[in-house]
Amino acid sequence: MKLVEAKGISFSYGGDLALENISLHIRKGDFIGLIGPNGSGKTTLAKILVGLLAPTKGTVTRAAQCDVGYVPQRLEITQGFPGTVDEILSLRPSKKKRHLVKTLGITTFMQQRFADLSGGQQQRVLMALSLLADPKLLILDEPEVGVDVQGKENFYKMLKELNERQRVAIILITHDVGLVSTRVKRVICLNRNICCTGAPKETRKLLQKVYGEQFEVHHHRP
Amino acid sequence: MGSNSRCITIVLEFLHYEFMQRALLGGILIGITCAVIGVFLVLNRLSLLGDGLAHLSFGGIAVGMLFGVNPLYAALGIAVLGALFVQRLIQKARIYGDAATAVILSFGVGLAVVIIGAVKGFSVNLFSFLIGSILALSITDIVLIATIFVLVVGTVIVLYKRLVFITFSSAVAQTNGINVTLVNYVFAVLTAVTVIIAIRAVGILLVSSLLVIPALISLRFSRSFKSTLVIASATSVVAVLLGTFIAFYADIPPGGTIVLVLCALFLGTLAVKRTGTAQA
Q1: Chain B from 34 to 53: CB within 8 A of any A CB
Q2: If B214 and its partner were Cys, which of A76, B206, B209, B236 is the partner (CB 3.0–4.6 Å)?
Q3: Is 80 exceeded by the pLDDT of residue A218?
């Protein structure tokens, strides 16, 4: 079942072309790693798929009742925001709140201010907020930034469970090429247009060429 | 006991005058309104929007005087249009908020200067709006202030979750079905009407202090979003009342005194404690 389908989409900021003729679809249960160098259009593509931006060319079709959860880069969250975790998770009324708080291990810092949390804790709160709406598709923009190694491990374990048990489709934007090669089911390499796409094994050679040693080091990590 | 009864006597004397009762009531309402709007402005990095709208209002007041319309109503109309224009520039033209504010600020002052230059005899009346006077509030002013208080605080209560969500992250708010553009336009109008009543208390030149400083003080101590609003409101009310009280007994301008009290409170909090992270 196609949740979202993009056909021939392009996007430009003023006169600068950020995306050119992108076509892709996301199905239920997909786990896609979206990679590419800085400025390659990853965040722009995510915002178009979520509906935050409208493409200048092409169309995006979303399946009926396909709620999309979006976890932005933490840079997009207001610095020094004084609200507590409880206040943030109450912004969207949902019966799932209690369950998510427990599952994501948020209970102990519910009354703390979001701004005072560690990177990993903030990431879990953003994740919980995006899951309150019970989305069929979850788009995460560089969620690993500022999170320690153990935090990353727990986070990806959680994503895997979400993807396998609940069949939530996930698009993970990342610079961690090693992660892409070991965790996701499909890779899309973007640089204004789609350079390559396929299973991690199929795209390995090209990724090695683009990312060189970084790919090797991460790839052999257990 | 002696000093207590002296304090009570001073306060009773203070409250004896009708103009003082109006000043206190107006001050409390203006203080709360400015603090509530100010918290959202500061967190959304629009701290100088109030200043820009106040200076734009200066042009509106001059236009009102030129055409024989109540200057505050003329200022209100122009400030609302200016606030909507700033939002339009931010959202459609992708201009930074501070740059968009600079445009309307310059326009307002330029308009006022041209009218003052062209029509003699306006400058004295216009000057009174620059520094404001909470001690000169009339019954009509109080009615206007109370109406705007109810409008602003009531709207913030109704839109509370949406405003907080957008302040947290406009992108996440939008993906959760909130019409961010519409809420931002409504908030811009609330800011404009708040600026107009703040002008009566502290004048055009000092409006931004009533909007920004209570929020900054509050963000240093608050432990939640709701407590930020409460502490900011309480700080603002204390500063307005204390400033008015000092100004009355020292026979000095109340607008400037209120702002100096706010600045003193802010400097005091810098020395006391720092609980927050980066302040916007």
Answers
A1: 43-44
A2: B236
A3: no
Cross-chain residue pair A81–B44, CB shorter than 8 Å: no
d(CA B132, CA B202): 5
Phi/psi zone of residue B55: left (φ > 0), alpha (ψ -120 to 50 degrees), beta?
alpha
Task: Locate A68 and state its tokens.
Answer: 């999309």
Task: For an interface test with A, give the residue of B92, B172, B181, B221 to mutate (most A CBs within 10 A).
Answer: B172
pLDDT tens digits for range A195-209: 888 888 777 777 666
- DSSP category for residue B177: T
Identify the helix (H) or strand (E) that includes residue B129: helix B123-131
- The pLDDT value recorded for residue A73 is 86
> Distance from B171 to chain A by nearest Cα, in Å?
7
Using CA atoms, how far residue A52 sits from A42, A43, A67, A81, B179, in Å, is 14, 11, 13, 22, 11
How many residues appear in chain A? Answer: 222
ipTM of predicted assembly, 2 dp: 0.84
Q: Is any Cβ of chain A less than 8 angstroms from the Cβ of B280?
A: yes
